[in-house]
């Protein structure tokens, strides 16, 4: 089922169950997807484009969560954690450390990287392979670890 249809179904269910927080997040996601559709001038977004929008929304919330934690804003932290959980439900399965490590090592071998100066080349090769399945900062740390070894 396409993501927009899934969001519509989940929105109806959230309304019936009176889940205000979940409903609000679903509406935000739908609006973001619709804005992206308008921006790109497409009738329908591809899965990659939908994933990009979801990843962007998730990243924004995770960044805000760190800020709120450092400011000790407990009222906002719990709200953001709920939003993150709802968005993550629509994201693809996240790679485990072992799976990610396998992708990193094979990509480093593919591009013949040997030092830190090859970092950009490795990252450019990895990102399309793991789009939406791993956080960029996590990938970056793992690539650095392997290029330093």
Highest CATH level, the class of the largest domain:
Mainly Alpha
Instruction: Say which CATH homologous superfamily of the largest domain is assigned.
Output: Uncharacterised protein YqeY/AIM41, N-terminal domain
Tell me the radius of gyration.
Answer: 18 Å
Query: Portion of residues in helices?
Result: over 70%
Q: How many strand elements?
A: 0
What count of helical segments does DSSP give?
7
Measured distance between first and last alpha carbons: 43 Å
CATH architecture of the largest domain: Orthogonal Bundle
| Mean pLDDT score | 89
Unreliably modeled segments: none
Our count of domains comes out at: 2
Give the SSE order as H and E letters: HHHHHHH
Let me know the largest β-sheet: none
Shape assignment? globular
Class from secondary-structure proportions: mainly alpha
Please state roughly what percent of the residues sit in beta strands, choosing from under 5%, 5-15%, 15-25%, 25-35%, 35-45% or over 45%: under 5%
CATH topology of the largest domain: Hypothetical Protein Yqey, Chain: A, domain1
